[in-house]
Amino acid sequence: MSISSFFPVWDQLTPDQQRLLEQSAAPRAVPAGTLLHSGSADCVGLLLVGGGQLRAFILSDEGKEVTLYRLFEGDICLFSASCMLSSIQFDISIEAEKDSALWVVPAAVYQTLMEQSAPLANYTNQIISSRFSEVMWLMDQILFRRFDSRLAAFLLEESAIEGSDELSITHERIAHHMGSAREVVTRMLKYFQSEGMVSLSRGGVRLTGREKLKALARS
Amino acid sequence: MSISSFFPVWDQLTPDQQRLLEQSAAPRAVPAGTLLHSGSADCVGLLLVGGGQLRAFILSDEGKEVTLYRLFEGDICLFSASCMLSSIQFDISIEAEKDSALWVVPAAVYQTLMEQSAPLANYTNQIISSRFSEVMWLMDQILFRRFDSRLAAFLLEESAIEGSDELSITHERIAHHMGSAREVVTRMLKYFQSEGMVSLSRGGVRLTGREKLKALARS
Predict the structure, then answer these.
(1) Looking at beta carbons, which residues of chain B come within 8 Å of A137?
(2) Do A97 and A183 lie in a common domain?
(3) Contact criterion met (CB < 8 Å) for A133 and B66
(4) Is A204 helix (H, G, I), strand (E, B) or coil?
(5) Which residues contact B40 (CB under 8 A, 6 or more apart)?
(6) What pLDDT is attached to residue A7?
(7) Would you call A131 exposed, middle or buried from its count of C-beta atoms within 10 A (0-12, 13-18, 19+)?
(8) Cβ <8 Å between A125 and B130
(9) I want to staple B47 with a disulfide (CB 3.0 to 4.6 A). Which of A23, B34, B77, B125 is the partner?
(10) With an 8 Å Cβ cutoff, are B90 and A144 in contact?
């Protein structure tokens, strides 16, 4: 992927602006598990995801995690450069969930470009709005949907991301993603198994009743 | 209030842009209780709050409400013009919580201005980021904080907004705000009363133990 392909508004930037963006973007390869951004203290810069998978999550004081959204190839991670958005008053953590190839654009460079270019500022607006939408979706899930329905939706989503019915994920890990407790997840998964929707093994969940899971996720 | 006072970047707009914004802004007086925007279907336009108080909330299919944030004099409501932000994929409802004086700027006009003016686009960015921050704060509350602590924080916030220790609000209404059930709120308020933190009357709550409430809200 080229830097230009991350920005649909590339053609509306001046040659100087394009050059600045290209030259300031530093490639970085990160192994799965790397914590890229934590809270509001650091300001790594804008991350352009060339490959792999990032996860944005929030963390409570007691270490409880909730996954907010994922970033895939072609996505831009803004919150790792939240220092340039003075109105962002919350802490998000970003980790590489798979081995990932990134470009890092320094926050100061991007901020300068946004101040010069209305198209880039408007595009950035769209990115923030998209993330906002994902968080609002999650909020809706947490507030208004039952846990069985959320868990079914989660398993289907994971299966779509992995491209497989076989998920190698622990109950502990699922609980982390959903901001729940392991016991709650285990209890519900056992119920799902008794209903023929999943089959459980050590450290893994296999989806065996997609249609039933889908119906539950929709409920 | 003048239109210009809503925009810290006013001086960075051209005279033409300033004129367009001023001329297109239509004054509107709305009584308390007016639903100004509901879901993503309508696109009233940008609301500039000249006086009064608006409430942004989400609504479940079953009619359960959760308050996201409030808008006061000098604030700008963007989500009533979410049609101009194609990436906004969620439904927010906006109502006048008190008699309010607004200016309505048509979404198309504002969008044109944002496309022309990098300062305005960047300022809009800041507004979205602020709202995003408020929603993330709420998310944190819901996910990580206990109900007693959230309720104490809610009562203190209401008291600050009203400028009084005497809140004329029903348990039903508090439950709506917090996305909880009336019984849960009543049970907790009775506990607060037994601890000397509040005194309950028909349709009202009086804060009698601020320090205790603050300590609980911080916990």
Answers:
(1) 89-90
(2) no
(3) no
(4) strand
(5) B82, B83, B88, B89, B90, B91
(6) 97
(7) buried
(8) no
(9) B77
(10) no
Query: What is the tens place of the pLDDT at every residue in A114-168?
Result: 999 999 999 999 999 999 988 888 887 777 777 888 899 999 999 999 899 999 9
What is the radius of gyration, based on Cα positions, of chain B?
19
Q: Among B22, B135, B143, which Cα is nearest to B88's? A: B135
Residue type at position A60: S
If asked whether residues A11 and A50 sit together in one domain, one would say yes
User: Would you state the structure tokens that stand for residue A41, as one six-digit string?
Assistant: 């203290």
Tens digits of residue pLDDT in A2-61? 999 999 999 999 999 999 999 999 999 999 999 998 876 678 899 999 999 999 998 876
Task: Give the number of domains in chain B.
Answer: 2
Position A203 scores a pLDDT of 77
Q: Could you tell me if B88 and B154 lie in one domain?
A: no
Calpha distance A161→A155 (Å, rounded)? 10
Query: What is the C-alpha to C-alpha distance for residues A84 and A25, in angstroms, rounded to an integer?
Result: 16
- Of A118, A26, A33, A130, the closest CA to residue A78 belongs to A130
Q: Token pair of A89, please?
A: 């008053």
d(C-alpha B7, C-alpha A19), whole Å: 32
Q: Which domain holds residue A18?
A: 3-133
- Residue A32 lies inside a defined structural domain of this protein: yes
Residues A108, A193: one domain? no
Low-confidence residues of chain B, pLDDT below 70?
A: 40-41, 61-62
With respect to residue A138, please indicate whether it lies within any of the assigned structural domains: no
Compare CB distances from B115 to A60, A118, A143 and report the shortest one's residue.
A118
CA–CA distances in Å: residue B214 to residues B10, B119, B153, B218: 39, 40, 7, 6
Q: Do both B123 and B30 map to the same domain? A: yes
* Dist CA B36 CA B151 (whole Å): 27
